[in-house]
Amino acid sequence: MSVKRMEEDRILLYMHAGSGNHGCEAIVNSVCHMLKKDVLVLTNSKAEDRKYSLAASKDTALCYLEEERQFSRHKFAHVMYYIWRKVMKDPESFIRYRYRTVFGKKFYPLAISIGGDNYCYDMMLKDLLLANKAFGERGVKTVLLGCSIDPELFLREGLNDALKEDLNRYLTIIARESITYEALKLIVPEEKLFLIPDPAFTLRKKELPLPDGFIQGNTIGINVSPMIQDNESKKGITMLSYKALLHHIIAATDMQIALIPHVVWERNDDRVPIKELFEEFKNTGRVVMIEDGTCEELKGYIARCCMFIGARTHATIAAYSACVPTLVVGYSVKAKGIAKDLFGTYDNYVLQVQQLQNEEALIDAFQWLSDYKEDIRKHLEEVIPGYVKEAYKTGEEIEKIWNSIRVQR
Asked: Are 173 and 398 in contact (CB under 8 A)?
C-alpha cells in the first residue's frame, strides 16, 4: 500500500487538548477502541499522550499522534501570519499553520472534532469555527462528536448567525445529552443530528492496588477542580464547602475519603485544591490522596468507591458507568444534561457551583445522596448496561460515515 493510500485510510481526530486532561484522554481512548480504522490524533501535547493511555503498548499503538504547531513556540511565524491574515483577509491561515501536518500534502477525508464542551468556552469558539471552515474548504468532511452546547449561546447577540453557519457545515453532529440535542434541533436539520451518550461511558477500567486507607466499598471519592472555583459566585465558597463536607463525613460517618484528581495541567490542576484538602485532614487517618494516572487507572479507583462527589465531567462519567451513586458539583449544561438523561431529572444529582451560597448546601446534597444511595445504585445497575450499549453507536455512526465517504471517493 502506498504511503498516500495509508494516510487516506486514517480518520483524523482534532481539537484534542492533551491527555493531562483525563477527560480528553478518555474520549480519545474510547473512540479509538470503538473504531476499526486507523486513527490519527492531532494533539496539543504529544508528550502528555505518550505518558498516558494513548501511547504504544508493546508493538501496538492505540492511535497515531501528530502535534499541532503552536505560535507560542514560534514568535516570528506568529508575526508573519498575523500580517498575512490582516493584508490578505485570510483568517483561516492561522489554522492552516496550526494544523500544517494535515494541511500539507496529506489528505484525510474525514476529520472529527472531539466535541466535549469546547463550544462552551469563549476562548475556543473562534478556533472551532475557523477549523471547521478550513477543513471544509479543503474538501474534508467534518463531524462534531460528543458535544455539549449551552442553549444560551444561540441567543448571544452577534454570534447566532456565525454559529448557525458553522454548525451546519458539519456533516454530522453527535450530542451527548438531550439538553444540547433539543437546542440543536432548532438550528440544524434533524437528519444531521444524533443523541448518543458520551463515548467515555464505554471506557475500560484498570484496577491498581488500593493505597492504605482506601477501603473498597466504604470509601467516598471526592474530586474538586480549579474550574468550579473559577465559576463560583461567592468567592472562596467552593473550598469552604468541601472542607465543611469533609468535616461532616469524618464526624458523622465511618467512611474513608479518597481525593481523586482528573486534570493535572499546570494551568488547571486538580491536585492544587486536593492537596489543600489533604493537608488539612491527613492527621485524621481518614483521608487518602490518589496520585495521577491514566484515565483507565483513575476509573479503577473511582469504580471501587461507595459514592462519588465530582467536579470534572469525565470523573463523574467514570463513576456513573461503574454504577457508583454520584453527585456532580457542576457549572454548565453538560452536568445537567447527562444527569437528566440518566435519572429523568438533574434535581439532587447536580449542585451548580454558582448556587453555592453557604457551606451547608454541599453537606445537604451529600446527605440526600447518602440517604438514597442504594436506590440510586440499583437504578444505575438497571440503566447503565443499555446506556453503554447506546454509547457504542458513536463508533457505528462514524463507521457508516467513513464507508459512505470511501464509496464516493
From this structure: no
